[in-house]
Amino acid sequence: MATERPVIERAKRLTGWYILAAVLFILLGLFAIIEPATAVVGIAWLLGWLLLVGGVAHFIATFKGGSTKRLPLQILSAIAFVLGGLYILTHPLLAIGTLTALLAVVLLAAGVFDIITYFRLQREHPSGWILLNGIVALLLGGLIWAQWPSSSAWAIGTLVGVNLLMTGITRLIFGLAGRRLVKYASA
């Protein structure tokens, strides 16, 4: 029994950190939903920095080995990442507009494909959820497209906010369940 105590204490700490991370996800999600225009600028900055750092890392990794046939393409790929990151960082509003238009197109395409999938699999009794998901994706994509570029101020921030909120809620439920299991195991 003495060896179980450190394991239980560690599990309590880990579930505590997990619950804290879940609460932070929820708070960030709520902030992004309440202030989507501010959130989307933060998302653009994050994306820009990720592309920039990723491009530099890609460039460094290019010279760590591999085929010389791929070297020019790897260098061009690294340059594209760096230039994309720099563009987003120096022109965040234009990047947000472009990302929003791309989001609308992706949602419209996903909606069409889901609806086609539903009807192609109709004989196999597919779930109506596929059709519903397709319709919702079409409506959302159409709404974003119809209001573009003004939808750039809310679309990405709101959608990321909803995703963060849902991620936080599911992680919180999971963390609380883990905490209950730890409490049960220590009793």
Task: Characterise this structure.
This protein has helices at 4-34, 36-62, 71-90, 92-120, 128-146, 155-186. The protein is an all-alpha fold. It has one domain.
How would you concisely characterize the structure shown here?
This protein has 187 residues and is mainly α.
**What does the main sheet amount to?**
none
Q: N- to C-terminal separation?
A: 12 Å
Strand fraction equals under 5%
The residue ranges in which pLDDT falls below 50 over 5 or more consecutive positions are none
Return Rg in Å: 22 Å
Q: What structural class do helix, strand and pairing data support?
A: mainly alpha
Q: What spatial form do the alpha-carbon principal axes imply?
A: extended
What is the average per-residue confidence, as pLDDT, rounded to a whole number? 85
Number of helices: 6
Total domains, how many? 1
DSSP, total strands: 0
Helix content: over 70%
Order of helices and strands: HHHHHH
Keywords:
extended, mainly alpha, about 190 residues
Give the helix/strand layout.
Layout: H1 4-34, H2 36-62, H3 71-90, H4 92-120, H5 128-146, H6 155-186
